[in-house]
Amino acid sequence: MSSVADKLAKKSSSKTSAKQVRLRLVYVDFWSAVKLSFLTAVAFAIVTIVATFLVFLVLQSTNLIGQVDELLGAVTGGEFQLAAFLNLPQVMAFAAVVAILNLIVITVLGAVVAGIYNLMVKVTGGLLVGFTSN
């Protein structure tokens, strides 16, 4: 009788036949690319808003905004106060506007890239992709 280690050694020494398939990507569905780029942009927008909130909290807790405000007050003679412009609602509103603009731009760029790829395939023949099974 053979042990489990002998059986595993026989399995590892035998070569498996790996099948390989080569396919050409000759068309990217326009609406699928738009949907995928929109979902990517939504995730990026959420990350932008959360990161802006966390950075603002760190700046506020370390009192860096107050120190920069004191420095600007010394340079400008007290005419400009940074703390009047940098409060949480205004920072989050700015982050929301940036996130919405990024959402629109990333979605449009995904559609444009899909259209350009579909036009380039007519010249280049497409992207060759290889798949193997082990």
From TrEMBL:
Membrane spanning residue stretches: 36-59, 94-117
Pfam families: DUF3566
Matching InterPro entries: DUF3566_TM
DUF3566 domain location: 19-132
Keywords: Membrane, Transmembrane, Transmembrane helix
Protein name according to UniProt: DUF3566 domain-containing protein
